[in-house]
Design goal:
Layout: H1 2-23, H2 50-81, H3 84-117, H4 120-148, H5 189-192
Helix pairs in contact: 2-3, 2-4, 3-4
Length: 196
Amino acid sequence: MRISRKLLVVLAIAALGIGTIYAQPSPPTPPEPKTPDVTVPGETRASLSPREMQTETKKLTAEMEGFHVRVLQLQAAARKAKDVIKLNCVNEKLLAVKQLLNIADVADNDLTEAISSGDRDAQVHQYSQVKLAHERATAERDEAEGCIGEEIVFVGPTAVEVDGPPMPDDPTDDPLDPFDAVPSEFEQVILASPWY
């Protein structure tokens, strides 16, 4: 009898616990995350044909070679100015542009191989490497321009000429200048002293 009471109490507690669990509302489902409307650097358009990818790659590589030439010009300007700090900064950017140009050249060759083999994933990958290298080379070129600063475009001191109506009561046009008066003869104080 005693065991049956304990069993009854345990069953009653279990029934209450199960009822409480089923009475809870289900947790809300989290909303799906929204995709942002931004373009990630190096993001490529997968709709390009292999020929378009190759043409675009050649164009981007040619632009990067132009960046290389510009940074070399900045390096020459820093050398001519004998400014070691600017030269070190430009040399660092020049090294980065050269490395990115090498990456783009290798990716261009690999793109040609991927086009000839017909591997679409490899084509998109190599094209995106060139695109990303171009974006980074553009940033490095801009930073190299910042290393040199505005001294390269400085042409000379600014001269300002103002044409306007004459000023009334202009003190510089006074005919009786008090500082142009004839000095008068005063006896020196030292000679007038009886103790000297």
